[in-house]
Structure formats: structure tokens, C-alpha cells
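User: I'm writing a short report section on ligand binding and want a predicted complex to refer to. Could you take this sequence and manganese (II) ion and write out the structure as C-alpha cells? A short remark afterwards would be nice.
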Amino acid sequence: MRSWKSRSALEMTKAAAAASESYFVSRLAERARRDDVAAPCTFEALAKNLETYLQPRQVAQVRRAHDYAANAHTGQFRRTGHPYISHPIAVASILADMHMDHQTLMAALLHDVIEDTPVAKSTLGNRFGKQVAELVDGVSKLSTIFHSPAEAQAVNFQKMALAMAKDIRVIMVKLADRLHNMRTIGVMSREQRKRVARETLDYYAPIANRLGMHNVKVEFEDLGFAALYPLRAERIRQAVEDARGNRKALMDEIDKSIQAALGGEGISAQVESREKHVFSIYQKMKTQHKPFKEIMDVFGFRIVVSQEDDCYRALGVVHNLYKPVAGRFKDYIAIPKVNGYQSLHTTLFGMHGVPIEVQIRTEHMSEVADHGIAGHWLYKAPDEKTRGNQRTRRWVRDLMELQQRAGNPLEFIESLKIDLFPDDVYVFTPKGEIMELPRGASPVDFAYAVHTDIGNRCVACRIDRALAPLSQQLQSGQSVEVITSDDARPSPDWLTFAVSGKARAAIRHSLKSQKRTESIALGRKLLNRSLANVGSSINDLDFRRLRRVFKEFGVRKLDEVLQAIGNGDVMSYAVAQRLLSADNRDYEAVPVEHAGPVAIRDGEGLVITYGRCCGPVPGDAIVGHMTPGKGFVVHIESCNNMTETRRRSPEQLIPAKWTGSTDAEFTTTLRIGVNRKKGVIAELAAIIADVDAGVDRINVVERDARVSSVIVVVSVQNRDHLARVMRRLRAIPNVLTINRVSG
Ligand code: MN
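Assistant: Sure. The C-alpha cells for the complex follow:
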């Protein structure tokens, strides 16, 4: 009942919502057309601002850039109705407020010239120098980057990396450009507005955040939110305003008592109340499912002091004043955030139990928190005495150095991407192209991303020029080279570490057809062997006459019969019998017992498996057991499990022999009786490793006071290798007995 009521109170009819949405959209448009938004300053006002921190010579250069741009954009107008040049001037003025250098300002004024007018990059280079031309070019290229994040993202990131590698000022101009465009977004078409707003929320706000430009980030978020969801943004804004009145008395009270307490300790500080911005409230409601009221019930304060040690003293004061909430204190002064942010954070129980969130920082930290990387230009006059300042400078220097390092410009963009795209990994091909892979991807994923054919034929890889296992997880920024071989094939093991959908599907597909090919080959081998008993072979049979026989087996083609034989679904003996009797009326029966052994190549393929019961290794006398669904399973001739089969259905057993050799490994099981002594198990493992054999498993299965029985699963290359292992084990004084387990 209650929930129905509150829902109906909040939800309007669709028509009403649409009507009020269009109302708020028209308000956005109205705002965009205002002179102070669309054309907030004239060039003369900008120049005056520049004179406060640039040399007259530099201001003159900026003026030249302006005059040139104004001329190039002559006759062009923005959707707001203002002459086009008002936009570059607005962008430049945002950057001037950050005290960016004269080249950045020139680039800002010229930023749309290459794209929107017939002027070429080389022309700008001749007139304004290579650096300014590069900046303008970088901004033009960046503009295309975020448009299609789904398609060709790797290519876009490469461009982005290159643009940023050259100069981080490109990003600053781009952010300022987007900021002004967002302020005037109300005049765009509905479709454009939604797309640009999405882009701003998805890409530009995180970048601003990563660069520590908090103020810009907040403005991006609130403008983007209002453009994307005008109605929701307006409702939250209204609710914040309403709540403000209710909260005022309490805020003032808290403010006063903090001021007084700090004053009492002789700390001079500015105390400001903080309000959450609209988009962050919306996000909290959405992601944490918190009602608006609960979010607004938190009171935020910021205490700004002049010295770093005052921060800690102020912390002591507020902790004395109100009870701190356990576990909520964070010292970002000692350990700054990646983007250089520094502050002390704590939460207190205020009067009547209201939660109070407090941030404590110095003035300088405050500037960095608001402006981030822009603070580098804004606060050039260094106050080297404070540690925070040095850290900030180091941070900026690190960022600059990273992107200037010619060899690997991606590192900087990489640190950006960690925030932007946490689920992706970016690696380089040998040609320097960027590949986007899912997190946790292996070189096999990489190989399939390059081409299915490369994936299917890959055998090894180099990561950053060093040989590495195919299963190694790739890290962003690594270069990966795949080594292929024409007769290589995907291994079923790959499915344990390949993560990308493309690789997994391709591996499965290839294994399936591989298995089919192998089944057919094995089936051919087995059928020929059965036919050989009567001096015949597959090639001697007239298959046009045998369609009838195929029908009996439910197949249409020879390959299908062979595959069924290889899979163990039908016995070659039975098939041979039917084929021969159909071919020859006089024929009676195939004599099974005279057939020769089937050759098993070491570690062969997918359709031949090895009995876990006895663990045959090359060199052992073996027999094949045709099992429906499992195909050809190799056992040791004396395997206990085969004794019963031999008696009941001898036709399922096929003599086999080893042939050829590979460096494949085979597992087999040993039972070892040992004296119960400390360290004896470790000794066994060490000896086995010493003879280059592998230990897959060690279990103690029985023990009494004196003796333990240990089961060891070892992997060896062949019978000689196994004999060496057993000989060495037998030589251990504490080893009493040693036997191979068979069935
Ligand atoms: Mn622009």
C-alpha cells in the first residue's frame, strides 16, 4: 500500500513527463543562448587576463593567433547565433583561468581552424611555429577519438596515445573545448545532445578526474547529466534546494562549533560547508540504492588551514568535539591519491547523531584538489617548504616525463585507462599496433585477436622480446609476438587459460574438426587392419555397391563410417564383416585374431587416450580397448581391468604397439612403502625432480607406527625414464618397497 502510494506520488504520466522534459530542454537551450554562456568574454577581456601572468611579447603572439582565427572563421556562426570566434575565445579564457602558457592559448584560439576551415597544418606551422601547429593538429585528431568507442577503439587509442605523447596540453585544450560545448549543449538536436552528453560522462569526466581537475569533472558531470536526463537532474536539483532550507540551522550550528573549537586551539582555518553535486547524488541513489533523504542527511564540511601540521592538529580538535566514526579516517596527506589529491578524511557523529563528513587540507592541497594538473600552471610560484607541494610537483613532473619518453608513450595513457577501462588490457603487436584484449588475456587470446589462422598455428610467444609461456597473463603496455608453425594445432589445454570469446570459440571449433579428422584417420587404420586379414583393404572395395551397408550403420559416406569406428561407436571388425559380405556373397567371416597391431605414436592426438588405471608409457607392452564414446584407450597388456574384458568381449581389444617418439609426457602411478621418518616425502619428490620427471600428485594412503604407503603419480617420457626414476627411488635408505600400480 505504502509503496504504491509513494510511487504514484513520484511518477507522472508519460505525457506529463514528456511535457516537462521539453520544458527543461527549452530552458537548457535558453541558457545556451545567453551571452554570458555562449560568448562569455571578448578578446580584449581575455588579453587583460593574460597580461596578469604572461609577458607582453607572448600576449602579442596570442593576439596574432586570435586575429588569424577570427579571419578564418569569418561568416561562420554557432548554433547559439553567435559568431564562431566567440567559441575559441571562450575556450582560451577557460585555459587562461588555469594560467596555461601562451602556446596553449594560441592553440585554443586556432583549435577549430584545421577542421572547420580550409587552413592546413603546414600553414599554421609557418605562421605560429611547429609547436602550436602540433597542438592544434592533436586537438583535431582527438576530436574523432571518442565518437565510436565500440568500433576501432584500438586505432583510436593509438591516435590518442600519439597525441598525448606529444603534449599533454592537447588534452587541456580538448577538455576546455568540450567544457564550453557542454555549457551550450542546449541548442543541439535531441540526438546530438544525448550522444555528446554520454561521451562527456563516459570519457571526458573520467579524464578530468584522472588529471585531478575536480572542478572540471563536476561541471562535466552535472552538465552531462542535465543534458541526458533533464527531468531527473531538475528534480534532484529542486530537492537539494528544498533540503538546503531545512538543513541551514543545523549546518550553521555545526559550522560555529567547529570554528570555535579550532579558534580555541589557536588554529586559523576556513570552515566551509560542502554540498554534493547533483550527478553524484544521482549516482549514489542508483548504485547504492540509497534514498535521497539518506544521502542528504550527511553533512559535509571542509577545513582549510595554512600548514600541513595544522591539518593533523585540526583533526585532533574535531575528534575532540564530536565522536569519530570508527574506520572512516583516511590519511591522503601521507599517501596521496594517484591523481595527486591530498586531504585528511574523517566522519563524525554530530549533535542528534547526524553524520558529519570532514575534509581537512591546506590551501595548496585545496587548489590541487580542485584544479589537479592545471595547478601546475596556475601555481607556478612554488612554496617549496611544504611536502605536499613537492609531491604535486613531482606528480606533474612524472606525468610530463612519462609522456615525453619517446620509447613508450603509452604508459601515461595506460595509467589513464586503468580508470577509464578497467576491464581491458592493451598490448602492442610487433608492428606497434595496439590490440585491445579482455583482462586476464593470454598470448593465445592475442594470437586469435590478430587472426584465427595465427591462433590455430601458434606454438610459442615472446613477451617484451623474451620467450614466455602461452598461458601467461598479459599486462597493458607489453609487446607480444606470436611464433607459429604450419603443423601446429590448438591444444585442449588452451581452454583452461584463453578468456576471449573469439579465442575460445575458435579453439573449440578447431578441436572438434581436429578430433573428427583424427577419428577418421584412426577408423581408417582400424578398418584396414580388419580388412587386411582377408588380404583386402578399403581401396579394394566398390563403394557404390555398399551404400546399402552404410544405411545399416545410419551413415551416408565412408568418412562417417570411419569416424564412428574411430570414436569407438562401432567395431571395425563388425564393419569389415558387413562390407565384405555385401561385396561378396561367398564371404563368411573375418578372422579377428590374425590382425597385426595398431601403431600408436607417442602422445598422439585427441582420439587416443591412455588408461588412468595402469598409466601406460612408451615401451610398455600395450593393447587398445575400443570403448563407445571414448574411442581408443591404450592400456598396459597386463592391466587388471583388461583381464575381464579379454574374457567377455575379446573383439573390443586390439593389439597395439608404440611407434615414433615425441617429447610428450606420460603419467603413471607408483606405490612406495617407506619408513615413517620426517622429510621422507620431500626426499621422494626431490629425487624424482632430480631425474627430470614430474610429480603430479603424492598421497599417503596408509600408515602404521613404522611404515607408510605412498602413492606417487609421476610423469615420465618412456619406460627407460621410468626405470631410472624407480632405480633412484629404490636407492633411498628409507624406501622399503616400490611397485608400479596397474589396474
Ligand atoms: Mn571547438
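A remark for your report: The first helix runs from residue 2 to 10. The pocket of manganese (II) ion is lined by residues 87, 111-112, 177 (CB under 6 Å).
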